[in-house]
TrEMBL record:
GO molecular function, one term: glucan endo-1,3-beta-D-glucosidase activity
InterPro entries (alphabetical): GH (IPR017853), Glyco_hydro_17 (IPR000490), Glyco_hydro_17_plant (IPR044965), X8 (IPR012946)
Organism: Rhododendron simsii
Descriptive protein name: glucan endo-1,3-beta-D-glucosidase
Subcellular location as annotated: Cell membrane
Main location: membrane
Record-linked Gene3D superfamilies: 1.20.58.1040, Glycosidases (3.20.20.80)
GO biological process terms, semicolon-separated: carbohydrate metabolic process; defense response
Residues annotated as domain X8: 375-454
């Protein structure tokens, strides 16, 4: 505990660091930072207002979303802000077929591109962590097919990738010992890295030093504070922080498979600004300090000990605090901004409204008061039957849900529709897992609601 005490003994030192870093960010103005625009909330401004806000009041220069939300995609039209979109885990397997991928590009991308500057299409989200056998088997083929379909449609600038949790690593400390989990290497990651090399697209990972806290009792190391560092005896490199260490662990793992040249992008990273009582590291100051250091690295060419001079395109998690995420207070506090578009803390990415118009974002929306109480997990509007059926199949097998109620003769068989069966099963899984928001994600096809769907 003396680590935490020491921290509060030197508040001036920390404040000095923050203002120095902020000053450096403002002066150099070379920062390039993306954000994840998550929408698990009932009080966010409409997408058009968010797009205007990002464009006129921040220096955020790229945005990533977790689905194909048409309102958000059209809100970013003609903003010149690159938008990264995600095909939900349940929806991408059929796109492993080139004909199907071409039809999908024709119906979904062609009407909105290039007015909306789509930068990346992500095939699923952390598929190797959350997916099932069908998804594993179709992941790389779908990446290839969607990419080829984009090229054939005349959109060679759209890159196709997928984001990985660092659960794909066997170990990471010291980085020289890192490797991908054995089973993933030969079947998925080698062909995927071959694909990335050929298509010149980045291997995207979600490194969260925050979630490495359980594996390290060195909080200063995790939080970019002065510390003795971690020495890697094999490479002779000294690590001063967990973030660099995690990126180098990914690099070493790629290198061991023969792909040190493939670019790495950071799909998500961040720090919660508040937590439940006792979560002493979840503070505004720590979130600000962590994200300042991430912004300082992103696109600066600083690189890491094993990748000096390299840039990592980076997306912070997240744009807004999201009130409907469950799983404890921290889950509602990953945001850089409150829903009213006021910054939770300053990391040098906001700018003042320009005088004489063009300032945008002037009208602050009235926040909707969220109703407290019970929560249900339901299929998202627009989720396809195929993805909902995949959710049912998964929950009834790997998910451990008792699915007798939706079988013929079961209490919840009627109405006999995929949507209604999925609503029952997804909610049963969500309730059984203790209302953790991530147990209602279902690869972007589920959403938490506070109104009883059976009424
Ligand atoms: C792809 O789908 C089309 C149309 O459904 C089908 O004719 C074709 O055989 C499929 N291709 C492969 C390689 O499965
Ligand atoms: C993890 O690494 C250890 C040590 O190299 C190895 O014995 C083990 O098989 C690996 N496990 C997996 C799942 O890759
Ligand atoms: C650490 O592990 C505990 C128990 O599994 C979990 O509740 C907590 O959220 C974890 N903390 C982090 C930062 O991952
Ligand atoms: C925790 O600290 C102890 C002693 O301070 C050290 O020996 C140990 O390696 C540390 N464990 C981790 C996981 O960092
Ligand atoms: C890393 O730290 C060790 C031990 O403090 C030191 O001997 C070594 O020179 C350092 N290596 C580099 C590359 O700075
Ligand atoms: C925005 O919301 C935050 C959190 O609810 C609040 O503290 C702040 O005062 C609000 N700012 C404005 C300008 O309404």
């Amino acid at each position: 505990m003396d680590k935490f005490k020491r921290k509060s003994t030197y508040p001036n030192l920390i404040l000095l660091n923050i203002s120095t870093l902020l000053l450096a960010l403002h002066i150099t103005a070379v920062t390039s930072i993306g954000v994840n625009y998550g929408t698990m909330a009932d009080n966010l401004p409409p997408p058009a207002q968010v797009a205007q806000f990002i464009k006129t009041r921040t220096t955020i220069d790229r945005v990533k979303i977790f689905d194909m939300n048409p309102d958000i995609i059209s809100a970013f039209a003609n903003t010149n802000i690159p938008l990264t979109v995600t095909i939900a885990n349940g929806d991408f397997p059929p796109l492993a077929n080139l004909t199907a991928a071409q039809a999908w590009v024709a119906s979904t991308i062609a009407p909105v591109y290039p007015q909306t500057k789509i930068e990346y299409i992500l095939i699923g989200s952390e598929v190797l962590l959350w997916g099932d056998g069908t998804m594993f088997g179709t992941l790389v083929p779908a990446m290839n097919a969607v990419y080829n379909a984009c090229v054939l449609a005349g959109f060679p600038d759209i890159k196709v990738t997928t984001a990985h949790s660092l659960g794909i690593l066997n170990s990471s400390v010291p980085p020289s010992s890192a490797s991908f989990l054995f089973g993933w290497q030969q079947y998925f990651l080698t062909p995927m890295l071959e694909y990335h090399r050929r298509s010149k697209s980045p291997f995207m990972v979600n490194p969260y030093p925050y979630f490495a806290l359980n594996y390290s009792n060195n909080t200063d190391f995790v939080l970019f504070e002065p510390n003795p560092g971690v020495f890697d005896p094999v490479t002779g490199m000294n690590y001063t922080n967990m973030y660099d260490l995690l990126l180098d662990a990914v690099y070493v793992s790629m290198k061991k498979l023969g792909f040190p040249d493939v670019d790495i992008a950071v799909g998500e990273t961040g720090w919660p600004s508040a937590g439940d009582p006792g979560m002493v590291l979840c503070t505004v100051q720590n979130a600000q300090w962590h994200n300042l250091n991430v912004v300082k690295r992103a696109g600066s060419g600083v690189g890491t000990p094993l990748m000096p001079g390299r840039n990592f395109e980076t997306f912070l998690f997240a744009l807004f605090n999201e009130d409907l995420k469950t799983g404890g207070t921290i889950e509602n506090h990953w945001g850089l901004f409150y829903p009213n578009m006021t910054a939770v803390y300053d990391i040098g990415i906001t700018r003042q409204a320009q005088p004489g118009g063009g300032g945008g974002g002037g009208a602050v929306p009235t926040p909707v008061t969220p109703t407290s109480g019970k929560q249900w997990c339901v299929p998202k509007k627009g989720a396809t039957d195929a993805s909902l059926q995949a959710n049912i199949n998964w929950a009834c097998t790997s998910g451990g849900v008792d699915c007798s109620a939706i079988k013929a003769g079961g209490a919840c068989f009627n109405p006999n529709t995929v949507w209604s069966h999925a609503a029952y099963i997804m909610n049963a899984y969500y309730q059984a897992k203790g209302l953790q928001f991530f147990n209602c994600d279902f690869a972007g096809t589920g959403s938490v609601t506070t109104s009883d769907p059976s009424k």
